Amino acid sequence: VSSPQKNPSIIIPHHTPRYTSRVLSEKDIKSTNYDNDPQMKNVMKKFQDRTSERLREYDERMKEKRQKSKEERDKRTQEIIEKDKREKSLEQKIEKGCLKCGLVLGGGVLPVWGMITGLWYATWSQYVAIAVAEAATNAGIEAGVKVGLVKVTEIATQSLIKSGGEIPTMDVLAKMTTGISADNVTLHGIFNAINSAMPRKYDYDTYSLFSSTVQKLAETPKAVATGYATQAAEVTKAFADAKAGVLTQAGNATSTLTTAITATVVTIVVIVLILVII
């Protein structure tokens, strides 16, 4: 083997390099300066734990909201089916009963005429009764929801007055209660309807605090009944008063019209009787 002593052509540097190489090795690329820092590891672990917890909570809320929305849809569908069955049953009973009345009324004078007048009056009465009931219910729903949204806004404002969270406008809240049934026109029912129809983005944008407040009250009906009894009573009263007002007005109008129709029918029957005798 050659050595400097034996081979003078081999030069060995005897000075220290002035610059340190900055070329990264494979090991340096795969690691960071924080891999062995206990404090940074602790911070990253806390961040990951909090993120995972938030995601789990979000998934749970979404599952609950989807389940409640499904239950609400099923309930409304069942209510519509039952209402349709009741109306059909009432329609059949009225038709059969008034058919007999018409036959009895016209039995002594003209059976065919009696049957026609009986069926006509029965059909008219049935239509008026159904139309009036539907109009009264719709008026009650409209009035109850209107008062209910005002109370929801007042309650949310009181809850968020310190935190400064934003509240959706009345028009936006009204759209969330579209299709609410008469049985759900209560303060808690309106909170529940808003919670079911509220977009997911409300959980994280400027309405996040409002969303949390509504969700909490929707899930605790007893808290609404006891903590906001006055507001709940006002919603119920608005629904009942509006419905009763329509029924009263319709009853007065129907009574007057029924009297006029009865007088007309009696007059026609008398004329027919005279013609038969002649």
Automatic annotation (TrEMBL):
<dbReference type="Pfam" id="PF02009">
    <property type="entry name" value="RIFIN"/>
</dbReference>
<dbReference type="InterPro" id="IPR006373">
    <property type="entry name" value="VSA_Rifin"/>
</dbReference>
<feature type="region of interest" description="Disordered">
    <location>
        <begin position="1"/>
        <end position="80"/>
    </location>
</feature>
<keyword id="KW-0472">Membrane</keyword>
<keyword id="KW-1133">Transmembrane helix</keyword>
<feature type="transmembrane region" description="Helical">
    <location>
        <begin position="257"/>
        <end position="277"/>
    </location>
</feature>
<protein>
    <submittedName>
        <fullName>Rifin</fullName>
    </submittedName>
</protein>
<feature type="compositionally biased region" description="Basic and acidic residues">
    <location>
        <begin position="46"/>
        <end position="80"/>
    </location>
</feature>
<keyword id="KW-0812">Transmembrane</keyword>
